[in-house]
Amino acid sequence: MRCLLPGAHLRTCLMLILWRTLRGPLLLLFLLAAACALLPLRSLAQYLATGSTGGGGCPETGVYHPENPFTSWPIAGGDWNHVTADYCDPAYLQQFGVIHRGIDLGYPLGTPVIAAGDAVVTRAEPLHPQRGNNVKACATNGWCALYMHLDQILVTVGQPLPVGLTLGTVGNTGNSTGPHLHFEVRDAGDSPVDPGPSLP
Ligand SMILES: [Zn+2]
To answer: Which residues contact 148 (CB under 8 A, 6 or more apart)?
Structure first.
């Protein structure tokens, strides 16, 4: 590109040279900006789909783990009709502003709560501010089940808890807005897992 003529033509010519020099880096900048704009959009889409932004939030929902030993409903005759809040329920997040890491089962006060799988009681804790009266029971493979907001605790730490054995009763203790059981499953690394796919 040569700019021989003076005046307006020279200005146009110089701008043309400038443009030709800069369009490469400008295109790169534009692509970078587009990528930056798309990343939060992807996070937003993930948030809307799972109620989580990932990274310590809500691990994947609906994933079946064959090593999960808690494969029975923690209430006799339990079923999905009694689930009032599912794992990572978006409605729960919207209402309470926290990720729901278990499933809630709505049953009347005093309904027996039974072990969802063979385990040993590792925690029988009264009146925790959030969990209320709660029981934690762990299987030999390190997976644990948590039963929260109980009215009564009927087991003690160290006690074997075979599947189906009554461990307490449905209550409204701790951070609870009505009688229900919060049932939670954690893997051997103490990360919450969706209990749903393992339930009948
Ligand atoms: Zn809950």
So the answer is: 102, 131, 132, 134, 174, 181, 182, 183, 184
Mean pLDDT across the stretch 185-200?
A: 96
Q: Looking at the domain covering 80-198, what would its CATH class be?
A: mainly beta
CA of 68 to the centre of ligand 1 (A): 19
Between the CA of 18 and the centroid of ligand 1 the distance, in Å, is: 62
Cα–ligand 1 centroid distance for 149 (angstroms): 9
Identify the weakest region by mean pLDDT among 70-74, 89-93, 165-169.
89-93
Q: What pTM value is reported for the model?
A: 0.72
